[in-house]
Design goal:
Length: 498
């Protein structure tokens, strides 16, 4: 994997190789695109939408989904469309390259939004959002923000709900800011009386060494506060020796202007969750195994003890946070196993919170009606919930969880990660043939038995556009701007600049 120290010639070759790969698959993918449209023309599509819209008493709502260029935003837009609603899409379009979600059949219209920046702040972005909401008479705004605009969306929520009748699935500024940063999230968790790992805010190397000296047998992970693609994975401390620890820390930029968080390292498996919270109550929830760069999604059974434990934590966090909490809530957990006299004991530790939608929302793909009903509860006053626990529209507020969910991958990512890059490593003598064949087998399993996180036979153009216009455009922009990157997340369209 390339990094910021790699010569520009290698980054140039990386970009050119990926553009060439896109061109190689263009004929095949275009055949898939045309075949999908022909199939849709011959057979009726989305019968559930027609059935729902013809149901007596059904009232379609106008829903604005921002972030439709990401898989999570596109997935939600499609769910609302299948559930009979009118969907408006919006997103940023870096370098003027149209995002794939703009071409989805689920959208009535798409709007390009200006990205908040240090020069203009978020005022222009919020005003454009408000103009869209007023112009389209939007009932519900579902924010699917990325990490870089989470706080600005919190600001937008407060303005929009104050100056229009639209409701927002988005936390306010204070809640978003608190949950967005690791150190303030851990403190909030402790304040709510919930378990949390040992965590320290550090602004000097001396402070780091002081913590390490107090507990020499403990391991820690140090991560930068805020968005830092180059240090996304964190730094494991201490190193093998005291001198190596000092030498490594001497190269880390740490100060009051660039603070870090030092958190207890927990040995174990990592999990992530996605939840919809409305007025302090969890309405939809899913948990799945996680990785630092997660590109394969497989839900834990809702009946599993781990899933239940993570749901209980989420419910308690939301309930103790109060009725004003409405938005998407995602946690990262570590599960530590320890041997006791009674046997193997598992301990659950929340390590991070993402106060925004998680890509794991794709696991609800087959539950459009149930998910839509959960979101609609944000439009129902709490007083309209009757004594039986049902909303006035007849929908039960019970928690929606995926029922027999599919397994999801992204074919573009797997082609590179499991086929082409390993083949290159084999040619260089850095990977065995057996490891390469194992990757090929995994790719075939995904291709034939898993679901692609972007492709839908009734809505194929976003999938085609992602791999043959959007990403090639981003790679070309990187060449022209001599921008170095280490990796990309196909599902969130994020490029990790280094």
């Amino acid at each position: 994997m390339l990094d910021g120290q790699s010569p520009w010639s290698q980054h140039l070759a990386q970009n050119l190789a990926l553009i060439f790969l896109s061109l190689c698959f263009l004929p095949l993918d275009t055949i898939v695109l045309v075949a999908s449209y022909l199939f849709g023309w011959l057979l009726p599509q989305q019968p559930s939408r027609r059935r729902i819209t013809r149901t007596p008493g059904f009232q379609a709502k106008t829903i604005l989904v921002t972030g439709v260029g990401m898989s999570k935003g596109l997935a939600l837009a499609r769910m609302f469309y299948r559930a009979g609603h009118t969907v408006i899409g919006a997103d940023f379009e870096p370098y003027g390259i149209p995002v794939n979600g703009r071409f989805s059949r689920s959208l009535k219209r798409f709007y390009r939004l200006p990205k908040p920046n240090t020069h203009d702040g978020s005022a222009h972005y919020i005003q454009d959002l408000l103009n869209v909401i007023r112009g389209e008479k939007v009932d519900l705004w579902v924010s699917c923000s990325g990490v870089a605009s989470a706080v600005e969306d919190g600001q937008a929520k407060e303005v929009i709900e104050r100056r229009s009748d639209c409701k927002a699935i988005q936390f306010d500024v204070k809640t978003t800011g608190t949950l967005h940063e690791k150190h303030s999230f851990i403190q909030r968790t402790i304040d709510l009386g919930l378990p949390a790992p040992e965590t320290y805010d550090v602004t000097t190397r001396t402070a780091v060494h002081h913590v390490l000296h107090k507990a020499p047998k403990k391991q820690y992970i140090m991560k930068s506060v805020g968005v830092d693609d180059a240090m996304r994975g964190g730094i494991r401390l201490p190193r093998r020796s005291v001198s190596e620890t000092y030498n490594h820390l001497s190269r880390v930029p740490i100060s009051k202007e660039k603070p870090w968080v030092l958190q207890q390292y927990i040995q174990g498996e990592e999990y992530c969750t996605h939840a919809l919270v409305v007025r302090g109550e969890v309405k939809a929830f899913v948990a799945c195994p996680s990785l630092e760069l997660l590109m394969h999604y497989e839900a834990l059974p809702s009946t599993s003890s781990l899933s239940k434990a993570m749901l209980r934590f989420t419910e308690e966090f939301a309930r103790r946070s109060g009725d004003g909490m409405t938005g998407h809530l995602s946690f990262d957990f570590m599960v530590e196993e320890t041997s006791t006299e009674k046997g193997l004991q598992k301990s659950l530790f929340p390590i991070e919170c993402n106060p925004r939608a998680h890509t794991a929302v794709v696991l609800f793909d087959t539950m459009s009606e149930e998910m839509s009903a959960s979101y609609m509860q944000a439009l129902t006053a709490k007083a309209d919930i009757n004594v039986n626990g049902h909303a006035a529209n007849g929908h039960s507020p019970s928690i929606v969880m995926p029922h027999k969910p599919g397994k999801y991958y992204w074919v573009g990512h797997d082609l590179v990660a499991l086929i082409f890059y390993p083949a290159f490593q084999v040619l260089r003598g850095r990977l065995s043939m057996s490891a390469f064949l194992s990757g090929c087998y995994e790719f075939l399993i995904h291709l034939f038995f898993w679901e692609d996180g972007t492709f839908e036979a009734w809505d194929p153009l976003p999938w085609w556009w992602l791999y043959h216009v959007y990403w090639p455009g981003q790679f070309l922009a990187s060449i022209l701007g001599k921008r170095k990157w280490s990796r990309v997340n196909v599902s969130t369209t994020k490029m990790f600049v280094c």
